[in-house]
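Researcher: Let's do a round of design. I'm pasting the structure tokens now; please hold your answer until I've finished.
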């Protein structure tokens, strides 16, 4: 039974995904036109909901079951060991992203402008609604502009400079819009977010939870500014020479003040969210429950913006371990090493080729930190994140005969105490991200005390000892490791490691030997009777410097307007 909280972004969205033609893409001569949609509030709400749906699904495995969990596969966190994987596996193992085919976003580059057009259609026509107040219309306009800013923030991170569109385009407009420099894109995102934040409410009534708030708009801005401060863009020269167009992929100078601007933006998110938005980093003293709630429970107080759609079968089937497709994706030992033991020390896992007893595996898995236990199911142990629930018992989760029964563990993140619920709300922005972002920015500013204050909020919630390290280089590595663990599966890792320009990116993160556990003398795990396990290399990941930014589709480049990123 649906709670009224979700009516706006679930019940209404059903209409948006069940029609063969998008609601506002029907021909003007048909029975549905822009004028007929924007007559009453009720009708307009369908268009508003569709704008949210189109904008916020970016980067999610939304399109179909064959292209799932791509970002986690490319970034080396998970391995697709199925025979049917058609996108994530080739990107990870062969030639990386290419201009002519694969993409990490299953809906592709062009879908950004479909979403942007939908938001602008609402913004430009909402004044036609006859039974909506001027104040409410202004809020809708602010929501739509924030959704546009969100898509541009995502493109900024993935592509660098992109064409800036500021309205709906018609056949009479010049559609040959070239890429704008990084600075112009960033300035647009910041301006749009500031304009929206000045109008948006801090909170919505319960029936409208999930719509854009002041905190969410500030979060979009802060994320863009964080990536602007990181080494990939904040540099005197680009990752690959781009001739006279270096400003599309690099600011052309290192400016330490970018970290200060990012820190201030993150502090603004935290202040607004906690003071006016009713948000908090959940910490009741039960780390597994607190982290599980923050990442999994619909409508929890830590999520500033989520993809709220209960009927998105494609997203749910890809993450839910109860489904056949979930078994294809297993945790790598490369990524496992990021997690701590519950006491905050590093776990000792076997070296490549070192054979240990299976009891060693179960002992060490049980020693892991609460976030690991919320994120993964370890073989032979019922899922920690759904205790005493037979739906999540080892015998229920285990599927006899599946060749994917290898790897270090399998993901159960987003399903804390889910029981039989088969949908979840993807957390696009959690407040915790802005504590970690602020910690990162303060450390780069040479303010370790402020960095530790923010970092230890996340460490305490995780049940781990507080960090006291003040050396900038060592603290940087600790913060980056915290990003990996805290936000596994939340579409941060792939672009974090690129924008940090980690020196090991080609030797065990994206490229290089990717490793998993194999069992019973390099055979498969069994439901019972397992004897041993060892670490081994399953494939060599691909990395080339061109992958720091994504390629534009060759079809767009062939039009002669969009300049390709270097190396493709």
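Researcher: That's everything. Go ahead.
Model: Designed sequence:
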């Amino acid at each position: 039974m649906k709670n009224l909280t979700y009516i706006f972004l679930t019940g209404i969205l059903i209409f948006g995904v069940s029609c063969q033609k998008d609601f506002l893409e029907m021909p003007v001569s048909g029975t549905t036109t822009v004028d007929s949609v924007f007559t009453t509030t009720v009708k307009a709400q369908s268009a508003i909901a569709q704008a949210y749906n189109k904008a916020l699904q970016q980067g999610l495995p939304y399109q179909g079951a064959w292209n799932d969990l791509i970002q986690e596969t490319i970034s080396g966190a998970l391995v697709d060991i199925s025979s049917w994987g058609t996108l994530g596996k080739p990107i990870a193992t062969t030639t990386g992203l290419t201009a002519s085919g694969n993409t990490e976003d299953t809906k592709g580059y062009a879908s950004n402008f479909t979403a942007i057009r939908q938001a602008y259609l609402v913004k430009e026509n909402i004044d036609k609604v006859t039974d909506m107040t001027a104040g409410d219309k202004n809020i809708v306009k602010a929501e739509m502009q924030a959704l546009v800013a969100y898509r541009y923030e995502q493109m900024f991170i993935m592509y660098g400079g992109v064409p800036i569109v500021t309205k709906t385009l018609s056949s009479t407009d010049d559609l040959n819009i070239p890429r704008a420099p990084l600075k112009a894109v960033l300035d647009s995102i910041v301006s749009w977010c500031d304009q929206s934040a000045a109008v948006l409410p801090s909170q919505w009534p319960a029936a409208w939870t999930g719509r854009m708030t002041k905190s969410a708009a500030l979060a979009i801005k802060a994320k863009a500014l964080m990536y602007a401060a990181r080494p990939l863009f904040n540099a005197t020269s680009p990752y690959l020479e781009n001739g006279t167009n270096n400003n599309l992929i690099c600011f052309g100078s290192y400016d330490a003040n970018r970290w200060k601007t990012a820190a201030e933006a993150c502090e603004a998110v935290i202040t607004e969210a906690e003071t006016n938005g009713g948000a908090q980093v959940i910490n009741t003293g039960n780390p597994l429950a607190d982290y599980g709630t923050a990442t999994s429970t619909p409508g929890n107080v830590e999520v500033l913006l989520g993809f709220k759609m209960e009927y998105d079968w494609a997203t749910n089937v890809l993450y839910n371990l109860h489904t056949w497709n979930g078994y294809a994706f297993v945790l790598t030992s490369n990524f496992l090493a990021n997690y701590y033991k519950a006491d905050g020390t590093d776990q000792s896992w076997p070296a490549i080729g070192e054979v240990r007893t299976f009891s060693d595996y179960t002992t060490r898995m049980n020693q892991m930190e609460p976030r690991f236990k919320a994120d993964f199911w370890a073989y032979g142990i019922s899922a920690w994140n759904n205790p005493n629930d037979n739906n999540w018992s080892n015998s229920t989760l285990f599927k006899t005969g599946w060749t994917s029964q290898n790897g270090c563990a399998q993901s159960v993140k987003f399903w804390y105490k889910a029981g039989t619920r088969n949908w979840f709300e993807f957390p696009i922005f959690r407040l915790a991200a802005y504590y970690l972002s602020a910690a990162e920015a303060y450390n780069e500013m040479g303010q370790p005390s402020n960095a530790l204050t923010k970092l230890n909020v996340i460490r305490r919630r995780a049940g781990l000892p507080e960090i006291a390290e003040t050396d900038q280089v060592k603290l940087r590595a600790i913060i980056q490791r915290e990003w990996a663990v805290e936000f596994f599966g939340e579409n941060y890792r792939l672009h974090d490691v690129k924008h940090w320009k980690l020196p090991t990116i080609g030797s065990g993160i994206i490229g290089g030997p990717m490793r998993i556990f194999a069992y019973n003398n390099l055979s498969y795990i069994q439901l019972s009777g397992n004897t041993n396990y060892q670490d081994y290399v399953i494939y060599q990941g691909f990395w080339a410097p061109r992958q720091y930014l994504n390629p534009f589709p060759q079809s767009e480049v062939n039009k002669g307007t969009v300049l390709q990123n270097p190396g493709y």
